[in-house]
Amino acid sequence: MDRAKQFTKKEIELKYKEVMAQLKKWGTEQGVKIYRKHGGKGKIYGVSFANLYKLQKKIKINHELAIKLWESRNLDAQVFATLIADPQKMKATQANTWVKDDNFNMLGGHIATVVAKTSFAKKKMEQWMKSKDEYICACGYATFSNMLKNGADLSNENCKNYLKTIEKEIHDSPNRTRYSMNNAVIAIGTYRLEKEAIAAAKKIGKVEVDHGDTSCKTPEAVSYIKKSVQKRKEKEKKAKEKAKTAKKSTEAAKNDKPKKKK
Predict the structure, then answer these.
(1) Potential cystine with 138: which of 25, 39, 117, 180 (Cβ 3.0-4.6 Å)?
(2) What is the CA radius of gyration of the chain?
(3) Sign of the dihedral defined by the CA atoms of residues 214, 40, 174, 87, in that order
């Protein structure tokens, strides 16, 4: 991961003003409507994610700036903050502040992506999963899914226990928590326990999630797991073939080198 250099408070302030001005410039009325439809509240410019990712490539990682952007209370700035935050510098208290501020359907997923790479990820994941707050609990399960994707040290026994919990609680859980729980089942099936996750998904049945006036849909876990596993296997196969070809090329290059005369 690219790391930003250490900046002075003055440099951070200048960069903050620059970023906020750029976000405001990129904002559109249509963008604001889309954010609102997805549950966005408060100050919004309506910047497209394409532009947010473009700006991310330019700034890369700058945790101090991310914190200041979050404190702006502007939703576009907060989403962007999650894109440039440094998991190695993230503190548990900051993670708690961010997740408590979450009131936007997509923001929690971005927070989870950052937290899943921190040293305290498992602790926060477990804590948030037990929360009665819809968005905090959803963020806990999203953190879990991201940890599985990242290859975190979570045992298969842990995954089996979470499957049992989700089976028992998903239909009585709040709207966004149901969505995140369903994604967790998919993550378990994709990265760890395919058969067990598919069996759990069949017992759970259809998961109803209200996506409001948007085109978003809730993935059907069984078919999604099967497709994801197939894609993962194909990707792994291609990676092995690429490594094998590279090894052969290296060996051929060594053999082609002229031998030194004695």
Answers:
(1) 180
(2) 22
(3) positive
